[in-house]
Design goal:
The chain is mostly helical. It has 18 helices and no strands. It is a multi-pass membrane protein.
Amino acid sequence: MPLALLALAIGAFGIGTTEFVIMGVLPQVADDFGVSIPTAGWLVTGYALGVVLGAPLLTVLGTKVSRKKMLMFLMTLFVIGNALSAAAPVFGVMLIGRVVASLAHGAFFGIGSVVAADLVVPEKKASAISLMFMGLTIANIVGVPAGTFVGQAVGWRVTFAVVASLGIVGFLGVARLVPDTGRPETDNIRNEFAAFRNVQVWLATAMTVLGYGGVFAAITYITPMMTEVAGYTEGAVTWLLVLFGVGMFCGNLIGGRFADRALMPMLFTSLGALALALLLFTATAHNKVLAAITLTLIGALGFATVPPLQKWVLDQASAAPTLASAANIGAFNLGNALAAWLGGMVIAAGLGYTSPNWVGALLSGTALLLSFLAAFLDRRTRTRVPGSAVTASERARQAPAGLGR
């Protein structure tokens, strides 16, 4: 494994921690600033919207510099945002800090995916992307529970100060280990936007929104579901989220490994199984043991879709992949926001705390249908266009090793 992937994974660990740890310390933040829990919830919403907006914006602005320099800038932005949150004197300043930190999120994973794929031979691209995202999954196993514990024990400000220090480590790792490979393939902004003329890029983005949204339809309301339906205590929810994180970790590795061998079959399997698991969760949520097993499975299946979807975008936008890759990362957070909204609607309609699982199953099932459409269009294109029977990834695999890199 190239050491540069470790540097990217460290940055991903810090970003993953700051994204989700706020949920664990939200009551303490609300008490300190004297605001309600719903008002404090804007720290979550503001972060998600910042990712959606920041991913394409900063990626476009970064077309004039090397990817390494852009990654270093993004980690600097991440450190500033979390330091501002840690020292915020009023709620509004902390909200600004959260948004500043979130701006780095989408662009870091988008550009980092391209860098990770370029570090290895073509047939290992999905595995390399999954290794970078491994930092995000480990954050849900270690970073978020640890950050929540620290925040509850000695104060939430310490949590964000520690996260800012993780950003410094990530910055130093990128500066030392990531090779300076020059500017992106194109420094023309029009060329980057031209990637969106490909319907496959839009299909992949839609699959990301719906597939990963299916996961968050359930996970957003996991606390009331587990306490009111399964019968767990509130303290046990933290360990349930650790199980969810373990599932994400395993699913990410499996998705990366098998996407290199058979990308679309892996996507079909993970999306179909995810929709089925979410349907089953409606029933298994009434049993403690089955609920814990199903939650772990949902985490695994949900994140098994990430490497194949990200690689599919890179393959389809091979001439100008940076913006398309970053936009796809933003799509994950758009899916989070959409699923949380829809899940809240069905709960408010009186359908019960397990009803978001039905929403999630519907979203993931729709993503599965879109994946069938994407595969059909790709097969038809390769059949009709002369010389296109070989995919972009296969052409890269057949090229000399130096050109492949």
